[in-house]
Structure to design on (301 residues):
């Protein structure tokens, strides 16, 4: 409300007074970061308990056969998911990333496949996608200069007011080794695509600096490593060099893409190490977190 109307607007001042009064009168307050808890205590005189957002149970790694089905489905609408070369055996199903053997029905990753990069957005001013586009241009130049890097399929999902503006910028790029796709996915396909991707990118900067991007929570639920632009409390979710990487600008993001995708796909690489760390972290799901963390607090009030 403050971003739209300004901090001194009468409606903003009324909402602030109302929230401060009611927050002090409540028996229990929940917030989503320790930074928010500290801000409430220092500036609002409100005591709160931190309960971090958790992914829903359907955010998980996608089995390879389901990945193939999804890629074949999306390939009917979006060329980035289509096979670059048709198989010699016309009975074989092939996408840009996977292939189903005609005889055995077994799905495998294609040799020399592109890496799948994904970001989701509501296309607002909170997210500066020129950072990603500039990083992709630098990545493309590295390939042209002879670096051993894979082609990229960059998928940016979502709808919002700035989508047409950024799509216009994307259409002006002359990529040879990168395809940028901006689909609107069906609700059931979004978690499947997150669980099929190789790397997530988050460009969200919290307007308050006190909350965390839910998209990264969902990516971590799918054991998908993330590169995320830095802001005040991001460290409470993204652990640099443990479950992902934090960057400040396009130059740093380009360097991270180069490092993570060097010798792709490399089982011993940092990208797979981040994924292994996420698998071993045994994250709670939303319903489990509610029962273990929130319900006891409610029962004690």
């Amino acid at each position: 409300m403050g971003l739209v109307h300004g901090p001194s607007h009468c409606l903003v001042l009324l909402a602030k007074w109302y929230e401060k009064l009611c927050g002090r009168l409540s028996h229990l307050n929940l917030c989503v970061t320790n930074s928010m808890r500290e801000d409430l205590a220092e500036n609002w005189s409100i005591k709160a308990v931190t309960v971090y957002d958790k992914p829903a149970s359907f955010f998980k790694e996608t089995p390879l056969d389901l990945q193939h089905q999804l890629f074949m489905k999306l390939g009917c609408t979006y060329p980035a998911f289509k096979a670059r070369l048709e198989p010699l055996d016309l009975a074989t199903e092939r996408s840009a990333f996977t292939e189903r053997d005609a005889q055995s029905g077994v799905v495998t990753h294609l040799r020399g496949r592109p890496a799948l990069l994904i970001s989701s957005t509501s296309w607002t001013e909170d997210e500066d996608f020129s950072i990603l586009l500039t990083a992709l241009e630098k990545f493309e130049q590295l390939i042209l200069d002879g670096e051993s890097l894979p082609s990229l399929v960059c998928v940016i999902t979502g709808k919002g007011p700035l989508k047409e503006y950024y799509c216009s910028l994307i259409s002006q790029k002359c990529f040879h080794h990168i395809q940028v796709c901006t689909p609107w996915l069906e609700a059931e396909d979004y978690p499947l695509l997150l669980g099929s991707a190789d790397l997530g990118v988050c460009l969200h900067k919290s307007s308050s600096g006190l909350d965390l991007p839910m998209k990264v929570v969902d990516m971590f639920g799918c054991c998908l490593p993330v590169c995320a632009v830095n802001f005040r409390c991001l460290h409470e979710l993204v652990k640099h060099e443990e479950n992902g990487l934090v960057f400040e600008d396009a130059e740093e993001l380009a360097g991270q893409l180069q490092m993570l995708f060097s010798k792709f796909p490399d089982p011993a690489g940092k990208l797979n190490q981040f994924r292994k760390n996420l698998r071993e972290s045994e994250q709670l799901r939303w319903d489990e977190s509610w029962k273990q963390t929130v319900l006891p607090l409610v029962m004690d009030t």
Summary: The chain has eleven helices and eleven strands.
